Amino acid sequence: MSAISDLTAYLTDPWASEFMVRSLLALVMVSIVCAVMGSFVVVKGMAFIGDALAHASFGGVAAAFVLGGSIYLGAAIAAILTSLGIVFVSRRAGLRFDTAIGVLFVGAFALGILIVSRQEGYIVDLFSFVFGNVLGVGQDDLLLIAAIGATVLVLVAVFYKELLFTAYDPAMAAASGLPVAAMQYGLLGLIALTIVISLKAVGIVLVVAMLVTPAATAQLLVRRLHLIMVVGAGIGVVSSVVGLYLSYHADVAASAAVVLTATVFFLVTFLLSPRRGVIGLRRPSILTKAEESYGSPR
Amino acid sequence: MARVDTGQPGTKEEGFRPAIEVSDLWAGYDGRTALEGVTLTIEEGCLAGLVGPNGSGKSTLLRVILGLHRPQRGKVRLFGQKIDRARRLLGYMPQVELVDWGFPASAFDVVMMGRYGRLGLLRRPGRRDREVVWRSLEQVRMTDLSQRQIGELSAGQQRRVLIARTLAQEPRILLLDEPFTGLDAAAQHDLLDLFNEVRAAGKTLLVATHDLSCVAAAFDHAACLNRKIIAFGEPHAIFTEEILNATFQTHLLLVNVEGKTYVSYQ
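Predict the joint structure of the above. Result:
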């Protein structure tokens, strides 16, 4: 009897305080949006650009902080400008995409550090965006996350067919008359918005994990893009809940606990996955098929 | 340009309709020309090959016809219409190297993408689209494997899925870029049978390839391209050592067995 009431207390105690409930709501929303956009990131190998946009947003956060504007707006402007700049520079200068990313995001991040280095005090507040401070999420943060997150999800649902086709086969999508360039810029813009609403909850350094890890775990389990989104969102939500419990009971940083929980989910899935796991005996089929289609003798 | 006319009507009747007309087409990338005054007419209901070595402009010509690449000069007409008004007449299969086989999509999903151009923005696939996709899968005999992830299919099956996607576009003209690459002889033979079925349904096929034996075995016409059209005509008539050497600029071996021309090179 007392074991059960202990367990009940263990499970219900954290939600007695309002800031824990707000944290949970923020993390649940953020992890759903991150998993949906993260599915594109994982499938298209865009993890580096996700990380880059997160770091670049720091320039905007710092500028907004100094100028006294909205931190979210600053982050959004910096992330979107950087993503446009990456595409523009790589096209104009004929640089490889990842080179343009490497140049521009570190530049924007360094600008943020430069701005901050002129400031005295308040640094702790600013660094809650770097490492995340989900327990500090307020009512207005929640509303903003809900509004932008819903916008991102609705846009993905409305343009799913176009985003899928463009991600899979841009040449044929263009030949079919779909607006491929608009979709590619749009995808970057949606990833930028996703990062912006994740900043307060998980922080610049860890946001790429929320984008990549749940979707990557889902990719080990299911093989259609929309299923990766759904399963990834589920893994993200469960990681958020488990991470918050860990944070509450073990008194550790919430965002790190959530990310590490997601990482453990990934590792366990990787070890046990019947398809591509270490324990599953079948060889990774994608690799063998790719070898077949390109390596067979003419 | 050496146009070889054998005088044989072949399987085509008199008074054919041109499906693809390309006249004096110049195109290139960054100042390097890929096509220099290409003129070519492909008649309706014809299985035509576009042969030439790598870098001869085959893909560029297909991309211009598709409206993906703007030519410097010249014009393209599809059944007499400009390409921007005739996009729905076209079906396209890109080179397999450009396809992301690890992408999380089933064979059915990929074939459905053939419908997206007709659907346009915002509209979702409906019952008729699913019917067309299913029919296309039936035509390439892939209904059994429609729910497989594309990466789990064999090279020949993957190729058939791409062709089904092209058919799902309900095109009158199919443009196929290197469909034979990497297939074994049996799978190539399957593909040729399928092309014959598609042609029998009244569609026009233009196939870019450097596989001369497939063209020699089954195609109505071939155009030898190396930035210019070197020759155009029935394969057995134009696949001569002289023309092929001029096209491929390498030494070719031709073997004629019982009226069929077999080709090997390098």
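The CA atoms of residues 132 and 200 of chain A lie 5 Å apart.
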